[in-house]
Specification:
Blueprint: H1 5-27, H2 32-43, E1 54-55, E2 58-59, H3 67-72, H4 74-83, H5 107-118, H6 133-136, E3 156-159, E4 164-166, E5 172-173, E6 176-183, E7 190-198, E8 204-209, E9 213-215, E10 222-223, E11 228-232, E12 237-245, E13 254-256, E14 259-264, E15 270-271, E16 273-274, E17 276-278, E18 286-287, E19 294-301, E20 306-314, E21 319-327, E22 333-339, E23 350-358, E24 363-370, E25 386-387, E26 398-405, E27 411-412, H7 419-435
Parallel strand pairs: 11-16
Antiparallel strand pairs: 1-2, 3-6, 3-14, 4-13, 5-12, 6-12, 7-10, 7-11, 7-14, 8-9, 8-12, 15-27, 17-26, 18-25, 19-24, 20-23, 20-26, 21-22, 21-24
Helix pairs in contact: 2-5, 4-5
């Protein structure tokens, strides 16, 4: 039966409406300047900007403020969004709003960027681009200060006496080096408010210091909450242990000029909480060759009331996932941090927006998962059993925490420092110097060039 004339007209009208709707949808396809750029500014340009800043030795490969670069990278941008690789952030969505500097991207922003790529990554009209303050900071995107340091203009900068030479045949090398004051002065003990490490390049796997904290790929500066700080004693040197890791071979040698900057509290400021740290390493296990989901567990008892400031899980290439879980004295449990997809290239420090109170008698349960199978594309050797070790091709199961006792200290900057606190600060670096062999950078002494790669 043929449709009636009226039905035919209705069908024709519906078809026309659909065609017009499709044309309108095509006309409304997102463009770079009007749609994608504001989303990039909100979520990405803290790193993806011209001459972008380093983040623990990592540098963004392109600027997403530039259309031509964004267009060229469009397929990779879509893939990074679909897989969740970007923006980089390990903490599960359940923690949204808990930690400073979180890098979650809203679903609507993600969908808009994917739609922009799918529609051909068109430029649109440059006049539609945000202007003025919106270009600099649109919902979280930040631009590196003119000082070249995220912490602003440092009160003091330290660096090597001369660049450290990392020779061709080095794959893993961990020298301990004394950094000298390059700018500023330290004529009396100072309270550190901010500290930032500036690694010389991606071959700097990590840096450990009593005063700077820990620098690893992807980790930004330490900015302590007001009234929290670390004491730096009067000393012409800052001792650091650096782990260099690179592919060995002819022509791979590099010279490293890593620096660190500090901002100090001013006289009259009050320090209530002296920051302490504990690596919480767990050893004594062996990951079997080929094992895709090997689990390691450990516990740590809290013996006094503390404020937990931050957590920094650490594993190597086989690291798969990590969890901190708190058991309160009454037996109640709470997940402090769940990192379901650990990425060795992005080792974040998860700092609470507000330091978390943990009562004495609590226990922190720590769990690590490792993938030592062929399914792990980063695995150096799936046929090897793996133990805790210093080399990047070994493994680690660390669960560093930063914390402070809850009793306010009331230390006034510029006045006498309690002797016990001053002695503890002096001892921390003294112990490091005594238990390690310092790298001698004297031009007439080249013995350090033949040190064992794994010496500390």
């Amino acid at each position: 039966m043929f449709p009636s004339k009226r039905l035919a007209l209705l069908l024709l009208g519906s078809l026309s409406s659909g065609v017009c709707g499709l044309a309108a949808a095509q006309d409304a396809a997102p463009t770079f300047y009007a749609d994608a750029l504001p989303v990039f500014q909100k979520n990405c340009v803290a790193c993806h900007q011209p001459e972008g800043p380093g983040s623990g030795g990592l540098f963004a490969p392109m600027s997403l403020l530039d259309y031509d670069q964004a267009k060229a990278w469009a397929p990779m941008i879509k893939n990074a969004l679909v897989t969740g690789y970007m923006p980089p952030w390990g903490a599960h969505q359940r923690h949204r709003g808990e930690f400073k500097g979180e890098r979650y991207i809203d679903d609507k922003d993600k969908e808009l960027l994917i739609a922009w790529v799918d529609a051909g990554a068109t430029p649109g009209n440059p006049s539609d681009a945000p202007h003025g303050d919106a270009l600099v900071n649109s919902g979280g995107g930040t631009i590196l200060p003119e000082s070249g340091w995220w912490i602003g203009d440092p009160d003091m900068v330290v660096g090597f006496d001369r660049p450290v030479y990392v020779r061709d045949d080095v794959m893993d090398w961990q020298p301990t080096v004394q950094m000298q004051i390059k700018r500023g002065e330290l004529d009396e003990p100072k309270w550190i408010s901010k500290a930032e490490l500036a690694p010389g390049g991606p071959w700097v796997h990590h840096i450990v210091s009593s005063h700077m904290g820990v620098g690893v790929p992807g980790r930004g500066p330490f900015t302590y909450p007001q009234g929290w700080g670390v004491l730096m004693p009067e000393d012409p040197f800052v001792t650091v242990n650096i782990h260099y890791h690179k592919n060995p071979g002819e022509g791979t040698a590099v010279t490293d000029s890593t620096e660190a900057g500090f901002v100090f509290y001013e006289d009259g400021d009050v320090i209530d909480y002296v920051v302490e740290t504990n690596l919480l390493p767990h050893r004594g296990w062996t990951i079997p060759a080929g094992e895709p989901n090997y689990e390691v567990n450990n516990t740590y008892d809290i013996t006094e009331d503390i404020f937990l400031l931050s957590m920094g899980p650490h594993m190597h290439y086989r690291g798969k996932a990590m969890r901190y879980e708190l058991e309160y004295p009454d037996g109640e449990r709470e997940v402090l941090l769940w990192v379901p997809d650990y990425d060795f290239n992005w080792q974040f420090l998860y700092e609470y927006e507000t330091p978390k109170f943990i009562p004495a008698g609590s226990t922190i349960h720590m769990s690590w998962w490792f993938d030592n199978s062929t399914g792990n594309r980063w695995n150096p050797d799936p046929a090897a059993d793996v133990v805790y070790g210093l080399a990047t091709t070994d493994e680690m199961a660390n669960a560093r925490i930063y914390f402070a006792p809850t009793t306010p200290q009331g230390i006034v900057v510029g006045e006498e420092i309690p002797p016990a606190i001053l002695e503890r600060a002096i001892s921390a670096d003294k112990r490091r110097r005594e238990r390690t062999k310092l790298l001698d950078q004297n031009e007439d002494d080249l013995n350090w060039l033949t040190e064992d790669e794994n010496s500390r």
